[in-house]
Amino acid sequence: MKKVFVTGATGLLGTNTIIKLLPYDYSVIALVRKKSSWVGEESENLRLIEGDLFSDISEHLQDVAAVIHIAAETGQNLLNYKYYKKTNYDAAVHLFSQAATAGVKKFLFVSTANTLGYGNSYGLGNELTPQLYPFTHSYYAQSKLEAENYLLQQSGETKVVIVNPTFMIGAYDRKPDSGKIIFWAWKKKIVFYPEGGKNFVHAEDVAEGIIKAVEHGRSGEKYLLANENLTYKEFFRKVNTITGQNPVMIPIPKPGLIILGLIGDGLRKLKIKTNLSSVNMKALRINNFYSNRKSVDELGIEYQPIDKAVEDAVRFFENKNKNNRLK
After folding, report:
1. Angstrom distance (rounded) from CA 129 to CA 138
2. 267: which of 12, 63, 68, 272 fits an S-S bond (Cβ 3.0–4.6 Å)?
3. Residues 26-35: what's their mean pLDDT?
4. What are φ and ψ of residue 139, in 5° steps?
C-alpha cells in the first residue's frame, strides 16, 4: 500500500481526490485546519492531521511516496500580490523542501490552467502555450506560475509533476467556491451572461488525473486537466436544463463589463476588497479554451460530460441545504 500526503484535503478537489485515492489502495495522510471540516467517510487508511501549510510535517513524511499539494489561495478579491505569494508560492517552497529532505519520490503540484495560454475554437491552448493577458496580470495566476517555475527548477531526486486544471464543477464544494457559477443561473428568472467562455471539467476527473499523474506523470511535465469548452451562455443553458428552468437570458454588454472593471479598480485603490477589476472583467470577455489531448494520450483519462458535473454539484447543494434545515 502506497502512502501519500495531501494538502487542501477539505476543499472541492481535495475531498474528491482523497475519496478516489482510498479505493486505489492508498494510505492517505491529509493536512487539515480542523478535523471536523472533513465531509467524506472515515477510513482506516485515512489519517487527518491538524496544522497549516507552514507546519513542520517532517514526521509525517516518513515512507511517503508522494506529496499532493492542492491547497491554494484562489480568491479573486485580495488587494496585494503578497497575500497570494504567501499561500501559493512560499507554502509550496516550504512543503517541497520538507518533502525533498524526507526523500519523498514525487511532488505533485496542483496549479491552474491560467498559467498557460488560452485559445479559442480554432486553436486551443495547451501545455506549451505561453501565458496570456489578462492572466499575466492576475495575482492568483502569477503566484501559481512563480511556484511552477521554482518547483520545476528543483526537480531532481524528488520528481516534480504539475497538473493544470481548468474550471472545476462537482460535489463537495462546501463554501461553495467554483460552484458559485451554478447559483448565477440556478433559480433565477433572469440570467445575465458575459460574452466569453471557459473550459469546464468534473472535479472527479481532475482527482482521477492527479492519481494518474502521481503514478504515470513524467518528471518536469505539465498536464492540462480539461474537458468541455463552453461559452457562459452554453453553460448556463445546461444548468437551466438540468434544474428544469427556463429563465430569460440577457447578454451583458461589453461596455458594461469594462465600466464594472474600472469601478473595481477604483475600489481597490481605496483598499476595498472586491472581485471587480479590469483584469477579472476581461477574463469574462474571452474564450478561455484549452485542449486535454496530452492528459488523454499520456495519462489515459476518460473525461465525463460536464452535465454530470453540474448534476453532481446541484445534488450536493440540495442535500446540504436539506441537512441544514433539519439541524
Report:
1. 17
2. 272
3. 95
4. -60, -40
